[in-house]
């Protein structure tokens, strides 16, 4: 009798578990995802905005290597890249009935990052920005999930046919919040000094590492604020193209910061307790080799020169961390008190 009951339990487990295992979550699977799209860039820019989507059909390649159709809603997004790049950054929405049983089942809304232009090396800047997201994963738990995609894209405005591009998908901020039983704070301005110290320091040192000054938590510029509980808010960083590590041809430095080019480092974090600051500093130093390992995973997508430049840029950062006088100069005495 006990054996019979155990067999029934085992059968029930496989009956319910196998369908769940069959379809892996979009971001759990880190293999490059093939997507196919066809639309007019001119019409997409003309007919969509932050609140207006258009119906589109895209295709994704399943695990068997077959193309499957997916109905989505799509719009342009962003500011600088939308106005200055040939390929606009996109946002996709997928209705529940359409995404059921697909890799997108748990993702109602997604961002899609595409190359800025049609230059031969445009994909490498996308890869370098994706590396920034993966580096943030190494030093903080509060990050956006990402996944590389191979885009088979046809622009209906020209006759060049299908072009192969590299891009990546970014998790929606509400989905990030759901992972932590948290919420995104959109309706309030949160001073940087109110962010949880450890999370803020990891964020700020990461931004120094990749050479980023193009963010503001107070004004919600390239940074979301996530509330974990009544007393705890943490930064959630995104959009890393205007950084020293990526260093695209269109990179600009804000006149609000005292540097001349994006490859110049400037610490923009607020001053924190010295003991916590030193603890997070040691965390980063301990992860130096894992940081280089992240870059190595994408070396096939970079030229030898690009890979060497990223390694050099990161080594310069760790030289700051490993030298007491440099750390004092670049971080401790440079932090903001207001």
TrEMBL record:
Secretion signal span: 1-22
Organism: Algoriphagus ornithinivorans
Keywords: Signal
Protein name, UniProt field: CotH protein
Top-level taxonomic group: Bacteria
């Amino acid at each position: 009798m006990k054996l019979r009951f155990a067999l029934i339990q085992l059968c029930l487990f496989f009956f319910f578990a196998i369908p769940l295992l069959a379809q892996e979550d979009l971001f759990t699977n880190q293999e490059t995802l093939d997507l196919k799209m066809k639309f007019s860039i001119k019409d997409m820019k003309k007919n969509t905005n932050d609140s207006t989507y258009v119906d589109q059909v895209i295709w994704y390649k399943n695990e068997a290597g077959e193309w499957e159709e997916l109905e989505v809603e799509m719009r342009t997004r962003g500011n600088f890249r939308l106005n200055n790049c040939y390929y606009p950054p996109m946002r996709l929405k997928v209705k529940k009935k359409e995404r059921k049983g697909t890799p997108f089942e748990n993702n109602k809304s997604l961002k899609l990052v595409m190359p800025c232009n049609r230059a031969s090396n445009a994909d490498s800047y996308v890869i370098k920005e994706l590396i920034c997201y993966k580096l943030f994963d190494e030093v903080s738990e509060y990050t956006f999930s990402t996944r590389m995609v191979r885009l088979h894209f046809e622009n209906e405005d020209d006759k060049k046919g299908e072009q192969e591009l590299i891009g990546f998908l970014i998790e929606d901020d509400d989905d990030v919040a759901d992972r932590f039983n948290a919420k995104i704070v959109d309706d309030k301005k949160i001073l940087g000094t109110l962010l949880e110290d450890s999370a803020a320091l990891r964020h700020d040192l990461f931004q120094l590492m990749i050479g980023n000054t193009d963010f503001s938590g107070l004004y919600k510029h390239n940074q979301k604020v996530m509330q974990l509980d009544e007393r705890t808010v943490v930064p959630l960083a995104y959009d890393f193209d205007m950084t020293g590590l990526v260093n695209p041809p269109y990179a600009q430095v804000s006149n609000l910061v005292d540097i001349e080019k994006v490859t110049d480092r400037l610490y923009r974090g607020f001053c924190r307790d010295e003991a916590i600051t030193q603890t997070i500093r040691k965390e980063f130093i301990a992860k130096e080799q894992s940081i280089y390992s992240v870059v190595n995973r994408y070396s096939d997508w970079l030229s030898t020169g690009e890979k060497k430049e990223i390694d050099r840029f990161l080594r310069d950062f760790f030289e700051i961390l490993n030298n007491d006088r440099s750390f004092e100069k670049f971080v401790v005495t440079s932090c903001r008190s207001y």
